[in-house]
Amino acid sequence: MMLLLGQAAAAQAQSQVVQNNGNSETASSSTAGAPAAALPATNVEDRRDAVAEALNPPTTVGSKIPMTAREIPQTVSVITQEQIKEQNFQTLKDAMQYAPGVTTLQSDSDRVQYYARGFPITSFLVDGTPSYVNSSMSVTADTFQPSLAIYDRVEVLTGPSGLLNGFGAPGGAVNLVRKHAQKEFEASATLSGGTRGNSGATIDVGGPLNPAGSLRGRAVVSYTGANGIQDTTNTRNKVLYGTLEADLTSTTLLRVGASYNEYTSNEPWIWGIYTDGTYGNLPRGHYYGAGWNRDTFRTTDLFAELHQKLGGGWTAKAVLDYVYSRSTTLQASQFNAWDPATRTGDISATNNAVSEGKTNIDVSATGPFTLFGRTHQATIGANYMRMIEHQSQYYGDPKNLFGVTNVNLLNILYPIPVFPGTPDTTSRNNTYAKQYGIYGQTRLSLLDPLTLILGGRVSWYQSKFAVDPTYNVFGMTGNSLGNAGKFTGYAGLVYDLNKTWSVYASYTSIFQPQDNLMTTSGTLIKPITGDQYEAGIKGEFMDGRFTTALAVYQINQKDRAMVDPNDPTQSHYIGLGKARTRGFELSGTGELTSGWKLFGSYTYNNSQLEDSNSLDTIASPFSSISPHNIFKLWTSYRLPGAMHGLTLGAGVTAVSETSTSRNGFTATQGFYAVIDASVSYAFTKKTSLSLNANNLFDRDYFAAAYARGRPRTVMLTLRTAY
Q1: CDD domains, per this entry (predicted)?
Q2: What is the DSSP string of 130-141?
Q3: Running along the chain, 722 residues long, what does each successive block of 10 average in pLDDT?
Q4: Which domains does the chain have, with CATH numbers?
Q5: Residue 50, H or E segment
Q6: 318 with 306: CB under 8 angstroms?
């Protein structure tokens, strides 16, 4: 479908290209006599105009070198700043719900997981620098659904991503690109309000700080708030961000910055489910918690980047990023499944305090080299990630640590328990983990239209879990885990059929440790290993204004954790489980004709365990939350002529059946589709007013058969710039 749209768009726009540029070659005619580009693959940057750069920008999520999607032999997509504004995305979760091939799982009221091709996405980067992701998700609410106020765009790679980003987990990688200081002064303000308590305000100011423009800065202040799905609940998100960059010399750039994010919520973590596996027939807004619920997540991020031109076309980059997060969780939520006949069940209390410090370092160099009379490209680098986490869990009466109490679902009465903080009611533990590796990649120009990409990484991993000898109510024991240097490889081939079409194939290996799972001999079970095979075709039309892609893939996993059948305690594991996923993705992105934009994708995915005893130890259940079919579409049209300030938009997310098991029961969500719409009017080039409606027809559903979808919301947003 998208391929045909692209062909139609190219034909329809041919006369417009001639009219706007004087010839069908557009800007490429002005560079016809320029030297050959360093990259042997089709380099379309010198032909791309501002529209193409805005709608289909080069990415670094699959490469340290900014490249168009057509040059990368894997599936990549971008949620651009234009799309963020047009669809009024507030958080990463909002954007990922429209990312091609991605399933969003609301693990609880505060925390989110993302899946692609049936597997969790566990690689998260900021400005191309990978960050350690804590598998416990203890303080990571803002890691997985941060405010987008400080980010310019979201880049997504689906499929294994371990070459540059750490371990090759199969789901993919997400790269958040920060807003950087501008060379010209710019200022903007956004004010919004709407139904269900939605409100927000953002101020974004930046530009040169000295007459020469060699020192630049940017600052962002943002606040958003909204009522939760359940009655009397709400969320609040506050963001502060500042960055400075300086041209130390004509070849040296220094960038430093800091951000602070505070997110609060009073929703209970778990939604109600009955013993028959259903969610019952209570109103969507029914509250399943206590009035004293309160969760707070605070994150401070300090970063510094040094960019250095080395000569001969080579550049080097060094990044240091430190993230300190704190969270407190005080709430009551469902303890087990409730009886649908009596509307009664158990509720329990949670009182946790967690702090986490993460240090991320990445050093790399990229540039061209000559071999056999042809110019090629190389990347070499190393990265280091360290995490230190401290957790304290407080419990109530030693005879009823979790405060389990049977309540009436229609009238939950559950006073806040007393948490003595004594050794017999408290658990404290620390986790220390580090991961480091060296990597390299080269793009070899075999022929003018043919590029071979080869890469490899050697990774090391160490983890230590330590318990407090006094505050250890469950008698846990510590352990130390680690893996010696492990090689993961990558190979890709891109062939340019012509100026529009490229075909590609790639191979990526997978390596993923399974933390805290021990064999009967007391050793860590071996990591999950595997590989992905992907092939496809990509197209660019109108010099990159509209792009299409079709990919087919298969991912194989082995050595997944299984309970050791010879262990009578059923508490030790062996790594023999297998899994496989197959599917294809079709997408189209950009401007079809002047004023008409389209962002669409269809994904078919078939994920399955190849043995019934294989466990899900990395994240949530492997295949049950991954629908076979995902269709996502957003399109908008700016009216011509006298009504050129008016833009109309509409979108749909359609998902086939999913199921999940909770409390020993299985719940199923059938096919559903959610419709969104928008209308905006630009009074001037700098000022606009937009009205966005999400879930326009108020569809009641459970995303991934787990968390109840948000009801209809309507937001009015005023944007102005200077």
Answers
A1: ligand_gated_channel (cd01347)
A2: EE---TT-SS-H
A3: 47 40 35 36 56 89 88 94 95 94 80 86 89 66 77 94 72 93 96 95 97 97 91 91 97 98 85 65 78 92 97 96 93 82 87 94 96 95 94 93 89 91 94 91 96 93 90 87 83 95 94 74 77 96 94 91 78 80 95 94 88 56 72 96 94 90 72 96 95 95 79 96 92
A4: 2-721 (2.40.170.20)
A5: helix 50-55
A6: yes
Q: Facing residues of 258 across strands?
A: 242, 302
320/317 Cα distance (integer angstroms): 10
Whole-Å CA distances, 1 to 83, 411, 498, 513, 651: 21, 52, 21, 39, 17
Tell me if residue 3 falls in helix, strand or coil.
helix
Token pair recorded at residue 587: 């997408």
Integer Cα distance of 469 and 454 in angstroms: 49
The full DSSP string for 490-515 is EEEEEEE-SSSEEEEEEEEEEEE--T
Contact 634, 87 (CB under 8 A): yes
What integer pLDDT is reported at residue 703 of this predicted model?
A: 80
pLDDT for position 135: 64
Q: Which residue has the tokens 């700043």?
A: 81
Element (H, E) at 51: helix 50-55
Kindly report the pTM of this predicted structure. 0.89
What are the structure tokens assigned to 659, written together?
Answer: 């199921």
DSSP characters over 63-101: -SS-B-GGGSSSEEEEE-HHHHHHTT--BHHHHHTTSTT
Q: Report the distance separating Cα 587 and Cα 602, nearest Å.
A: 6
CA-wise closest residue to 417 among 394, 434, 437 = 394
Written as six digits, the tokens of 380 are 């070499």
Tokens 């990484």 sit at which residue?
Answer: 457
| Structural element, H or E, at residue 52 | helix 50-55
* Among the listed residues 141, 153, 211, the one whose alpha carbon sits nearest the alpha carbon of residue 352: 141
